[in-house]
Amino acid sequence: MAVNPAYDSMFDAFAPDAVKNNPKARTEWAVETVKKAATASRRLGLKAHATFSGALLWHTMHPWPQRPKGLVELGFSELAKRWMPILNHFDAEGVDVCYEIHPGEDLHDGDTFERFLAATGHHKRVNILYDPSHFVLQQLDYITYIDHYHSFIKAFHVKDSEFNPTGKKGAFGGYNDWSERAGRYRSLGDGQIDFKTIFSKLTQYGCDVWAVLEWECCIKSPEQGAREGAPLIKSHIIEATQKVFDDFAGGTTDQAQLKQILGI
After folding, report:
1. What is the CATH number of the domain that holds 66?
2. Which of 68, 85, 142, 178 is the most buried (most CB within 10 A)?
């Protein structure tokens, strides 16, 4: 529904034959398909739906040649314009739209999420699918991201990754095969992500979301990844405490006692 013409032929692989080689028809099909997904989510009793934002601007991510003034603003304005009817449909169905913040999409970090949120007039159905694996590849602080955006996190992909730059490659190593890149996705538990802190943060902020195992790895099989990943997730799920650890020192408030303790 939001594809820069540079990617038309590659995105046709995702579309039915009836709309291939016809970007306008493909976009119309995509919009209606996402709307149907909202209705299906509601019928299944789901409150959150995972999706991508689409990308009109991604090919200008690294500004060379220099971007003309106003290009970014126009790109987000157009993206929001395309999403507004869909967001309104999701709102009518009572389902949140959870954008996976992902390289290759116009919503790929905190700043771009905020730009889009503002462009939609802070539509209440604009939310986040949190996947730290993409932030490792971007060298973004995936822990403090939760501090900033926990109120928007309504979906969670538990996926691992690693970033190992060398004298030959770094963040822009994308022309290599996955196994040869500095940043690559790994089977759960084999990468660098601090899931203990992530689960603690999400619990601290009361994020009531499914912890969904997502497997992508250039080394290990998906079968082994599933066998190892599911127990790892289970071991990280936290039963939130219902009381403060030093509650035993509490009691009723006695103003006279408080003054006595302070010596006043």
Report:
1. 3.20.20.150
2. 142
